[in-house]
Amino acid sequence: MRPPTSFSLSRCLPAVAIAGLSCGAALAAEMAPVEKVTVRAVAHFDFDSAAIAAPDRLRLLAEVGAMKDVTWQTVTATGHTDSVGPAEYNALLARRRALAVKAYLTGQGLPETLVRTAAMGQAAPVADNTSEQGRAQNRRTEVVFEGVRATAR
Question: Which one, 39, 75, 108, 115, has least CB within 10 Å?
C-alpha cells in the first residue's frame, strides 16, 4: 500500500520524536478521519535575556509529550518583550527569544523545518508594563503546536 500523497516525512518525525509513535502510526493517522489539535505553551525570560527560564523548559514539551496520538504538523514560536528600551532593540530581542525556543525544541527532537518563528517585540503585551510583575509576564515566547489526531470512524 502506497502512502497518500499528502503524507510527508516531516509529519512522521515529530510523531516519533515527541509522541513516541512509529511512522506507521503517523501514516495511519493520515489515512483516518482526523481532528485538529492545538496546544499552547509559554516560555518566559529574564530582563534583556534570550535564555529560557529553567521551569519553562520542562513545561514546553510536557503537555505535548503526553498527547501520544497526535501527529504534529507545525510549531510557531512568537517572541515578545516588555516596553523597556527602544522598539527596534526589542524587536531584535523578541526574535532572539523565538530563535532560542526553536533551538530548544529542535534540540529535543523536533525537525527544524517544523518550527517557525515570529517576533512581535513590545507590540502585543499581555500585562501592564508599568509594574515589574507585568513586564515579567510580557517577556515571553508563545508557542503554538498544531497537529491532527485520528478520530473514531
Answer: 108
